[in-house]
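Lecture 7 notes: from sequence to structure.
We start with the chain below.
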Amino acid sequence: MKKTIGLLVLDIDNTVFDWVTYYVNCMGSLFDKVFELTGVPVDTLAAEAKVVFTAQGSIEYPFLVQELPSVFGPYSENIDKLLSEVVGPARDAFNKTAEGFLKPYTDVIQTLDVITKERPDLPIVALTDAPRYVAMWKLNKLGLLSYFDSVYGLADPKIPVDPRTNLPKVDPEILTKHLQQFDFGFSGRIRVLPEEYEKPGVRGLKTILMDYDLEDHQDKITWVGDNLRKDVGLGKKLGVCTAWAKYGTLIDETVKSQLLAFSPEQNVHKNVALDPLKDNSPQPNIVLESFSDLLAAMKI
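Predicted structure tokens for the same chain:
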């Protein structure tokens, strides 16, 4: 007798879209714009970004520019000028580039349409190590947020503050969105997980199972992610059916080296699956060559 899947849990980055290509290109545009406006060399900006990302524990820190010493220094006496002359234009350059790269893998929407049509009772949940706000911003821009019943992400980014005045170094409109926990009109469950719940720790996925009353029904869960160590390793620890998004590991070497130029190595390993499947890797139950392979795996 076929077992009915009771919950589909999806990673986001490099599982539903090509995060590496998107982020490298957007950050390239951001650095180029900051160089254009300030004259600070891109290599210097990238080196300083590594320090900021390390301090923040995430490569997806939306307040990077105002925290770069070479940028903040000349504007330290006039934060409003910094925000209007550099931070705003840099953010616009990032977002403009995102329009061309922040797109789902070609078969994601079609596959999710089939799943929601054939299994309207099936909750689809996002579990990510990205900050909750950043994750929902991406899903909203990707046109995927409405497919999800719940979003589970890590704590939102810390608001940068000028230590001399104790005032935030953030545009008021953006600050309001962050402080009000802006949800992009999402009507489902939103859970902000503690930093110590980061994968491959099991507590994030365990929280989902508890929220859906499925702690004792691991056989009814399908968990999909691209990272063998973090995602597949997590799934195997909890005994859920784990699908490896192999397609999400196919990263161009040039793009990978560009990522390493501004990201601390520990962040690269945190965000990107760099290692191929080996005998000593956590072994998935299912290997997905494309997202649409999920339909056969779920017997839809």
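Points to note: The chain has a mean pLDDT of 91. The domain at 7-297 is CATH 3.40.50.1000 (Rossmann fold).
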